[in-house]
Amino acid sequence: MTGDIQLKEHVVEELAWNPAVDATQIGVQVRDGIVTLTGHLDSHAAKYAAEEAIGRVPGVKGLAVEIDVRLPDDARRTDADIARAASNILAWTSVLPADRIRVMVEGGCVTLSGTVDWQYQRQAAERAVAGLYGVVSVANAISVRPAVSPDDVRQRIANAIERQAQEDASHVTVSVKDGVVTLSGSVRTWAERVAAFDAAWSAPGVVKVSNLIQVNL
Question: Where is the BON domain (predicted)?
Answer without folding.
Answer: 3-71, 78-146, 149-217
